[in-house]
Amino acid sequence: MTIRALTCAVGLAVGAVSTVGIADAAQEPQADLLQDLRAATARYHSPAQAKRDGYVKDSPCEVSPAGGMGFHYVNFSRIGDPAIDPLHPEVLLYAPGPSGRVQLVGVEYLKIDADGSLLTDDDRPHLGDVAFNGPMPGHTAQMPVHYDLHVWLYEENPNGMFAPWNPSVSC
């Protein structure tokens, strides 16, 4: 191998290592955020604790051909805040476990769209570097145009941690 070829090979190897390092560094804040979120929501493995903290069951067990979401336990006092607090999600997601008892499978963030228009998204929130879905119409007549983001912290989702529906969740 010539000196020039060796120099190019070393340069490419260093570049590849640097790129991997940059990608890993970019993912670290997201990993730290998810770890903090797991710690902040661990007490909600008990639906009774969720109820004590102001969450109320607000839906039947949601399922579609794309997968499930489970039961939505909503803390209505958190909806409408101008900022998203990543450690205090607006919604907790529960699904029946193997024994039939409900278990915490994830969380959902919800932010009302500022102008109520489906045509604009200049107020789209983010969780770390992940953009929320929306704007979307309300799912009921009382629900306004909003953004939401599901985070499957406790039930792996083959479609991705932030996909709305999880094929691993059933009712």
Structural class category: alpha+beta
Sheet with the most strands, sense and barrel status: 7 strands, antiparallel
Radius of gyration: 20 Å
Oligomer: single chain
Low-confidence stretches: 1-27
Q: Which outline best applies?
A: globular
Beta-strand content: 25-35%
- Report, as a whole number of angstroms, the end-to-end distance: 62 Å
* Number of separate strands: 9
Overall average pLDDT: 85
Total helix count? Answer: 2
Q: Helical proportion? A: 25-40%
N-to-C series of helices and strands: HHEEEEEEEEE
Brief write-up:
The protein has 171 residues and is an alpha+beta fold. The protein has helices at 3-41, 47-52, and strands spanning 56-57, 62-64, 67-74, 91-96, 102-112, 126-127, 130-131, 133-136, 146-151.
Secondary-structure blueprint:
Layout: H1 3-41, H2 47-52, E1 56-57, E2 62-64, E3 67-74, E4 91-96, E5 102-112, E6 126-127, E7 130-131, E8 133-136, E9 146-151
Antiparallel strand pairs: 1-3, 2-3, 3-4, 4-5, 5-9, 6-7, 8-9
